[in-house]
Amino acid sequence: MKLFKIILIITLISSFIVGSTRIVDGSLVSDSNTHWNAIVSLRVNTTHICGGTLIAPSWVITAGHCVLTANNTLVPIAKMTIANGSYQLYNYNMKSYSVESIIVHPQYNATTHNNDIALIELTQSIALDSFPVINKEITVKSGQEAWVAGWGILFLGSDILASRLREVSVPILNFSTCNSYFAYDGDLTDNMVCAGYLLGGADTCVGDSGGPLLRYEVEQETLIGITSWGRGCGEFAHPGIYTKIENYYDWIFTNTQEAIDTPIVVESSKSGDITKLYVATFNRAPDASGIEYWLQSGLSLEEIAKSFFDQTETQDLYPASSQVGLFVQSVYSNLFNREPDTEGWIYWVDAINSGSISRSLFILAVINGAKDDDSIILGNKQKVGEYFASKGLNDTEDAKIVISGITSSSESVEESMTIIDSLTP
């Protein structure tokens, strides 16, 4: 019987081996990566204890156990602060915000970890360009790629927190398999999501609790889970367990008093966001007069993207009769210096042709979905583009030249900035 169990375990988990692409300890989050702008550090007496996610200007969502003491009583509000503004755990850009109130789910069970969710209301708002979407209708499926991030320890037994935010990709696992006798043996409830690797490896750990489990959807990040619990960190047969957000939409909506009722959009766009739009659409840096105009327009990024397609420059680049496939390739080349992968190319071409997404929203989706080298290249192009505009330059041919040589290297940025300096009157 024991031999049968071992064989069964090996058979079941073999389908989850991902090989060399698996990130064991995660990777550092670069400043150009905007996916985690809504992540916060939950602190008691100024010490980081958990993560959390801003879901509205004055509301943070986290795990229930993060706001409770060992005696299962609420942490005193006066001792708790929320920090946001930097990927470095402790630096001058990390601003602290005091807490107005804490709401723990009334059915939270510290023994079973069921309903491990809490809301924190802040005394003042935090201004972000956008917040992760909470979608009642989202379907979390086995095999989907999700992402987690945090400042937690890198291995069990350590007492040293990560000084800089780290992220890692974790696949959603089959719930029945994860809850079977060789893994969590029936301890999971329908309010939980299992994500990670049954062989161990990529996972969250102590100090990451309360942080977000995200999926990158068409327009922006979607919050699908809250880091909750697990057995060990990255251990064999014990992937991470996350609170299933979709089951709590009504509870969140009721307690935040409609704070998430309507989509949160950018009321006024920032120069960095507009610069990325220029790069994606025109393959050039923004001219100084153009970016000043859009900054003063008060339009959201989506509205600006739509307006770009009314411009003569855009119509010359992408005539209405042009093939959608070539358009998709052009945007990827403009942003990341590469062709889209075949699967992604087919997806976007079908989506645009079917009318399910406009060309302007497609550009925003690709920008928001940038990660790894793509994110670095785009961040470098943003730096150069903003630098060009800040020098008061307006020649569109020069704007194309300074962007054309940008890669993921810092040297390419320095070279372009030197060119910009030579163009400055």
Give the arrangement of secondary structure elements.
Blueprint: H1 2-13, E1 27-28, E2 39-44, E3 47-56, E4 59-62, E5 80-84, E6 95-104, E7 118-122, E8 145-150, E9 166-171, H2 175-178, E10 192-195, E11 212-216, E12 221-229, E13 240-244, H3 249-255, H4 271-282, H5 288-297, H6 301-308, H7 312-317, H8 324-336, H9 342-354, H10 359-368, H11 372-390, H12 396-404, H13 410-423
Antiparallel strand pairs: 1-9, 2-3, 2-5, 3-4, 4-7, 5-6, 6-7, 8-9, 8-11, 10-13, 11-12, 12-13
Helix pairs in contact: 4-6, 4-8, 4-11, 6-10, 8-9, 11-13, 12-13
Description:
- With 425 residues, this protein is of the alpha+beta class.
- It folds into 3 domains: 21-28 and 133-244, Trypsin-like serine proteases (Thrombin, subunit H, Beta Barrel); 39-122, Thrombin, subunit H; 271-423, no CATH class.
- Helices cover 32% and strands 18% of the residues.
- Strands 1-9-8-11-12-13-10 form a 7-stranded antiparallel β-sheet, with no helix packed on it.
- Strand 2 and strand 3 form a beta hairpin.
